[in-house]
Every structure is written in C-alpha cells, then in structure tokens.
Write a structure and sequence with these properties.
Number of helices: 21
Helix content: 40-55%
Strand content: under 5%
Radius of gyration: 31 Å
Order of helices and strands: EEHHHHHHHHHHHHHHHHHHHHH
Number of domains: 3
Strand order of the largest sheet: 1-2
Length: about 350
C-alpha cells in the first residue's frame, strides 16, 4: 500500500501596526484597527485557529469589514480581543480606550497611538484636541487635522487653528489675516483665551491694520473734508507712515470720485490696485472691482479672497446690507464715498 504524504497546512501570515505576528499576544501589542480590518476576509480567523484560539476565531467570523466603519462596531471588535483587560474599566467610546491605553494600561500604549492616528484624530475633535494639548505626535501636521474639524465651530479648536496660522506652525503657512479671523470667531463664541488674545496690545500691534493711527484726528481733519475740501496741506496731520498712506489713499479716491474714467489712466493699477498693501489692500481691491465692473466682470475673482475679512466685499458678492445701508446697490461713486467715510469701521 502506497502512503501519500499529507499536505501541511499553509501557515497564515498577518501584519498589524507595521509588524508580522506569530502569536496572539504579539498581535495584541500592535493592534491596528485599519490593518486588522483588512484581515476580515477569512485570514484572521484562520490565523487564530492556527494559534489554537478557536473560540475567538468563531467570534471574529461574525464580523465583516463594513462592521468596522462605525465606532460602535470597532469598539465591540476591540472588546473581543481585550475582554479581560477592559472588563472592569469604564469604557464607553474609542476615545476612552485610546486614553486608557496611553495613560494607564501602558502595555498597550502602542495600540492607543495606533487608534488615535489617524482614525480618532480625523473623526473625533475632542480626541484631536486632547492629543494636541498633551504633546502627542509632535511630528503631526496639526494644521491639517484642525482644518478637517473647523466646520464644527468649536471655539477652542478655532482658537488653536488661529494660533497656528498666526505663528506659521504645525504645517500651516503663516497668515495673520486668516489666523486673526479664526481667533476673532473663537472670541465671539466666548473662548476666554481668544478674548484675551484680542485684547493683548502686542498682538493688536501686528493684527490691527490701523494700530498706531490717530483715528479721531484723521476723521475730523482729513476724512471730514473729503472729497472736495481735501488739499495737499492736509498731509500736515500725518504723524507716521500709516497716516501718510491713508491720506495718500484719500487723494487717489478723490481723483477717482471726480472722474471715474481715470480708471483708464496708465498709472491706475500702480496707484490703486495695490493688492499687496497690508494697510489698505482690502479697500483698494474693492474699489478696483467697483470701477472696473462696467468693463469686465471681476467682482467674484477679485473679492472672493477678502470677503470674510472685509464686509463691503461680502456685501457686493452676496447683496448684504451693511451698517443699515444697501451698499451693494449704491452707484459706483456712492460706494467709494461709503468706503472712505467708513474707513475705520472695518
């Protein structure tokens, strides 16, 4: 009688958390839910049976990969593998599990990190704030993470994102206007740190366009004369470079107000459309749009980038009332006059 060699069972190999595992204990030390989810095609249960974990394999067979798309399913799946470890722990969410592993049962600290990044960071704002404030994942591009959550209107998250823009940190390109916009929104929601930030004179110095300008002096002695009584001698009221630039801007607006056709003069773009001017860039861009509207439709392309920072631009785009006035419906001349007379209101 001829004996036929019995084929050896194929050894199942599984990877989780960047490592290959040959024991259940090893898997539990690097339990990455996104990796394990891919093994629910039968490989995980077959591997468990090879580890003589038949009962656990039967429970795993009851799960499909789509069951691990929602938090409830993921939490139930984790409890299968960590039944004893979590038996007497008050756990109601994945966030609870991750924090417990990071701070208490540190045997599974690696699991806590794998659960946080990227799943919890991108799907749970409280988890993102917790990890950020406690210094976890220092190499993380936190700006991207908090941008994912900005629509939640959480005041603390808005403040954190604003500081990142303000400082140019954690992968965010420095942008004072964008940063201050988020911080102001956080302050409007009552976040104490944001309110203090707004009141801090050091920050006002770089975020308030008109910081250092004697507004009352300019309004009473210069703007009050605009347009027809404004004369070159009024430069005497300028005590610093910002005030000089404001008066120079008022003279340009006077020329345009007197003759809208001046838009065709060769030096118009150089004199008015200085969109890189930090002090009066919003005003010059908006006026540029106003005077050019009859010639080409540039309202949206010119004004869209500043609509959240300069209300007159938003009024033109969305036909919103401004200071009780239907600004968007005013004539070009009256729009310019409104901008000048309300220079320090925006």
């Amino acid at each position: 009688m001829k004996l036929v060699a019995k084929a050896k069972p194929v050894k199942i190999r599984i990877n989780s958390g960047g490592e290959e595992h040959s024991s259940l204990d090893s898997l539990k030390m690097n339990f990455c839910i996104s990796d394990v989810k891919e093994l629910l095609d039968g490989r995980l249960s077959r591997w468990l049976r090879q580890q003589n974990e038949g009962s656990l394999a039967e429970d795993v067979d009851k799960f499909k990969s789509e069951d691990l798309k929602e938090e409830e399913g993921i939490l139930a799946f984790i409890r299968l593998f960590f039944c004893e470890e979590l038996q007497f722990v008050n756990i109601t969410s994945l966030f609870d599990v991750a924090v417990y592993w990071l701070t208490q049962d540190t045997r599974y600290r690696r699991n806590g990190e794998l659960l946080f990044c990227p799943y919890l960071l991108e799907n749970n704002l409280n988890a993102a704030k917790y990890a950020y404030k406690n210094g976890y994942f220092p190499e993380m591009c936190w700006g991207r993470i908090f941008m994912v959550h900005k629509g939640g209107k959480d005041p603390e998250a808005l403040y954190i994102l604003g500081k990142m823009y303000f400082e140019g940190s954690y992968g965010v390109t420095k942008n004072l206007d964008e940063g201050y916009r988020f911080i102001k929104e956080a302050a409007a929601y009552g976040w104490e740190e944001a309110v203090k930030f707004e009141l801090d004179k050091v920050y006002q110095k770089v975020t308030d366009r008109f910081y250092g300008v004697n507004k009352n002096k300019i309004e009473e002695n210069v703007i009050a004369k605009w347009p027809y009584q404004l004369i070159q001698a009024d430069y005497k009221y300028a005590s610093n470079e910002k005030e000089k630039e404001i008066i120079r801007f008022l003279f340009i607006c006077k020329d345009i107000f007197k003759d809208l056709s001046s838009v065709h003069s060769p030096d118009f773009v150089e004199r008015v459309a200085k969109k890189n001017s930090y002090l009066l860039g919003y005003e010059t861009t908006t006026i540029y749009s106003i005077v050019m509207k009859p010639h080409r439709n540039i309202d949206r392309t010119e004004l869209e980038p500043i609509k959240d920072l300069y209300p007159p631009a938003a009024s033109i785009l969305y036909q919103e009332t401004l200071l009780g006035v239907n600004f968007y419906s005013l004539s070009a001349k009256n729009k310019i006059a409104f901008i000048v007379k309300n220079l320090f209101n925006f």
